[in-house]
Design goal:
single chain; alpha+beta; Rossmann fold; 3 domains; six-stranded antiparallel sheet; 9 helices; elongated
């Protein structure tokens, strides 16, 4: 006989086509370098703990994201995964007449666009005089200058990379550029192991975000694990990032089009009701070194989901109420300091919002003409199939919270002894009580908090509970709608009605 418990059937397709309690704490997953924490271990941090995060986990993009959220006062958890793929820095390109052959060695700990400027030249490497300066964001911001003296190498910030200067000279005004071409990364097996450790580790969290470009094949493995968690009453959602233009080339319309086509081909048949898969980057200031990196849109989705009650508000909400609403424009940009576009803007380069693939589309960022150059999440979608009710992150959060609340209430009913009628069915008064109490719990967690409009709970009064030992309960949640399209008719009138 199976163990006593509650069996859930989550209905989909009920709206037609088209808790998680509100602690809003994410678990950030990915490859980190250094620190004291071992693989498949993690830690929960309160706000303003960036220094401790770096002590514990060292460097890497997950550390950068955790420090960004913590420095803004949010609680965050970080979990370290194993590494399968080593990071690679691409070839060095010299601009100028320097004769020293410059190479970069080591493993990049994250996605960087290195630029080195020769501030003071030297007639021969290894003699005093040469001064260089490095940038991690292609020259937008600069690290402190380095005086080479008699050295023939220079450490490039906290990137894991070293510049090596061969025999020859350096000429003032010359420069080199190089970029990360392969990010250090986990395998799907690595990430599943880290996720299992996080889910079983006792840290209370609301959602996960994985750092590292994810393919459709890898996403399928993670999605299968998410389904398994849901079967054990762990209701949460996952954010993923995709391949990034920045690792291939500087942004251009042609690079954008090539990148979009590759994403659509890769994810053509993949769907997931538990995942938000974001595409694109935004210029984003690092909380660690103040450089201006291109960071995945998924990071900004995670920041927004941490900052607001995302069961109440869409992550792409344009209105900023001020105060602590934390909605409106994102803390990132599509444009460099000269006003040049450097990242995918779904308004200017459409194609990923609702592509011709099995899902309803990637989550992207965009501008609105009425809002200037400010960046907004276009729509925080789950990667659900067309026709699913679970179109957005908000609706996913609502159903997760509802399941958590309803399961929590009915768990206390397991092995209870409800009164029955002569035909073995549950007595009406007891069924009425169950319905009223369950509705009250849903009201407390959802309706009164503005996360749902209404609810109903119906206990089956026809089933013979003496024979089946089973209660059938139907819970329905009425969600808030979403104003995605607004049609305005405007024109002249010969006259207007009087007030």
């Amino acid at each position: 006989m199976p163990l006593a418990g509650i069996n859930d059937t989550v209905l989909d397709g009920q709206l037609g086509t088209v808790e998680l309690k509100p602690g809003r704490t994410p678990i950030i997953m990915g490859v980190t370098f250094g620190g004291t924490m071992a693989v498949n271990t993690g830690k929960l941090y309160a706000g303003n703990q960036a220094a401790q995060i770096q002590t514990d986990f060292g460097t890497g993009e997950p550390v950068q994201l955790a420090c960004r959220l913590s420095s803004k006062g949010y609680s965050v958890a970080l979990f370290k995964s194993a590494k399968t793929t080593a990071g690679v820095c691409g070839a060095v390109t010299l601009t100028g007449t320097s004769t020293s052959t410059i190479t970069i060695t080591g493993e990049p700990v994250e996605n960087v666009r290195i630029k080195m400027a020769v501030i003071t030249g030297t007639t021969a490497i290894g003699t005093a005089g040469a001064v260089v300066q490095f940038s991690l964001d292609n020259g937008e911001t600069w690290l402190p200058i380095q005086r080479l003296g008699t050295q023939t190498t220079a450490v490039i910030g906290n990137t894991g990379l070293t510049a090596n200067f061969g025999v020859g000279n350096l000429v003032a005004g010359d420069s080199i550029v190089a970029r990360t071409t392969t990010m250090p990364k986990w395998s799907a097996t690595d990430m599943v192991a880290a996720m299992d450790a996080a889910v079983g580790g006792g840290i209370q969290f609301d959602f996960m975000i994985v750092c590292g470009a994810c393919s459709a094949t890898e996403a399928a493995s993670l999605d299968a694990r998410m389904t398994a968690y849901a079967s054990t009453k762990r209701f949460f959602r996952l954010m993923l990032e995709t391949a990034r233009i920045a690792s291939l080339a500087d942004w251009s319309p042609s690079a954008d089009a090539t990148w979009q086509a590759a994403l659509i081909t890769d994810f053509a048949s993949f769907t997931s009701k538990r995942m938000l898969i974001a595409a694109g980057d935004l210029r984003t200031v690092s909380a660690v070194d103040k450089s201006m990196y291109l960071r995945p849109v998924s990071w900004h989705c995670a920041e927004r989901a941490t900052a607001i009650d995302s069961a109440r508000y869409e992550l792409g909400r344009v209105k900023d109420d001020g105060g602590n609403s934390n909605t409106g424009a994102l803390d990132g940009s599509f444009y460099d300091t000269n006003g040049n576009q450097v990242a995918h803007n779904e308004l200017n380069n459409p194609g990923l919002d609702e592509p011709a693939i099995a899902s309803i589309g990637f989550t992207t960022a965009r501008t609105y003409p009425q809002k200037g150059t400010q960046a907004y999440i276009s729509e925080a979608k789950l990667f659900s199939p067309a026709g699913s009710d679970f179109t957005t992150w908000r609706l996913g959060r609502v159903i997760d919270m509802a399941e958590t609340t309803v399961n929590g209430f009915f768990a206390d009913e397991i092995e209870e002894t409800p009164p029955t009628n002569k035909n073995g069915t549950i007595q009406t008064a007891y069924a009425d009580w169950l319905e009223a109490e369950c509705n009250a719990k849903i009201d407390e967690d959802l309706v009164s908090q503005g996360r749902a409009v209404d609810r109903t709970t119906a206990v089956d009064r026809t089933i013979n509970i003496l024979q089946t030992k089973t209660d059938n309960v139907a819970v329905r949640i009425l969600p808030y709608g979403e104003e995605k399209y607004i049609n305005i008719s405007i024109g002249f009138a010969a006259s207007l009605p009087s007030p």
